[in-house]
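Hi R.,

Here's the chain you asked about this morning:
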Amino acid sequence: MKRTAVSLVFAVLICAGHAAPYEEDPIINEDQEIREKRAAPKINRPATVNPDEYLVKFGYLPPVKPGRQYDPNSMVSAIKNFQRMADIPQTGLIDDKTMAMMQAPRCGVVDVEGTNKMGVKKTKFKSKRSKRYAIQGYKWSKTDLTYRFLSFSRDLTERQTRDAIYRAFKLWSDVTKLTFTEITYGTADIMIEFVTRVHSDGPAAAFDGPGGVLAHAYFPENGDAHFDDDEYYTVYKDEGTNLYIVAAHEFGHSLGLGHSSTLGALMYPWYQGYVPNYELPQDDILGIQQLYGMPDTNRPGEGDEDGDGDGDGGETPSKPDPNLPKACTDPFDAIFMDIYSRTYALRGKYIWQLNSNGIEQGFPKKIKAVYKGVPGNLNAAVTSHWTQRTYFFKGERFWRFYGTSVEPGYPKNIKDTGLPKNPDAAFVWGGNGKLYIFKGAQYYEWDEYSQKVADGYPKKIKTYWKGIPSKISAAFRWENGKTYFFKGDKYWRFDDATLKVDKGYPKSKAINWMGCDGASTPNKLLTGGDRPLSRSAGSR
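And the predicted structure, written out as tokens:
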């Protein structure tokens, strides 16, 4: 199988006054002799960079024959696209900031997603929906992966190297269903080598000594990762090149992620230094979860949420309630997944918590028992995993919650946001992590920081969300990374990577979400591991 290499070069971008404090390395004493023998080589930037060659190398311009020049409009567009990726002002000029980024060591993979250098059809840089992170279109067909060391770093002991690699894989496994297991013989899914100069990839992918290309990796399903052993690798400190951070970035490519234009993201093309107690940024979490879904986690149900001791909706009412929603026939007013990956559906004054099989035991409850201060008969609800805030919309007002507590100053009037009153649905789209609001046959992109609609909106649903009907009743992104749209008893599963409705949809909400099996009431309230195949997570 042909392999597409992802050469990785990093810039050491350490801001003055923000040097990371050292953590004590629990296994550093084992190779103190090695550290005394090898001094960290100085990493120098090249004195000059040819902007034309640079933009060609990283996919912003097509190659031209010797002697020919690019037209000014193409050059300005290419420079702006590069500046957009680098997250610097888009001036269209080779100014000081642009030249500094071009001079900085960085990842050798082309930045323009979809260029022929990545082995797929060439496309324009800016898609109809710009992404904070990039999905390269490659993913593993399984979630239990293996890795094997073919060699180790000369700067570290085998134990230190293994520890750094283990922690790098754990960053990704902690937020997905993925598992990683080291094997010591045979062919692993991800083969790891520490090599120099020309190695197993051949002359075209040769390393270049200290300070240039640090490493490269391959996209699935050939996820091998090679590290330049001429670099000075360290662990638990920002001196030299931190292997943990480099490896975590590389394994993002091994799992199918491209580069992110978000400064601070792990998949940002430039190395940003060592950070103690590093946590995977939300940008990278959203990207990897779009490919592999969220981790399997069982969450306990709530009890007397409002703390007044009377239950107040904390249990299913023992007496008939004419306002109690009909699980198998009533449409959703809204559906969302909170920051703890709990799925909630709302109807009237009540809320259901749903699991992979149907309704969680103890539900429905009154909405105010879980989210005190939220009225019934809502129009839409959504949780932003960027800010960890949950929004509820009704009529001309909206509420913002942190956890289960309403924030000061809310509710607010919707008229100053540019959003329509009585929206149909709200959700975070997996393609770029942004908030979208649907109303009738149109949709809006909403910036939760400015609380304004983005320029150029609204747009027509049918133009960008092919196969999704107008006037939907609810929508959300579920744990498998797919976006679901609901209307009446029907729901559509939308693949955020292909921008299409999956085959076999629409399906029945009552059967696949509420556990009704065609009955007028749920025939069983299922929890835990009691999971019939007809209502498994995969069947949704």
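Residues 1-47, 113-134, 298-318, 519-538 have pLDDT under 50 and may be disordered.

Let me know if you need anything else.
M.
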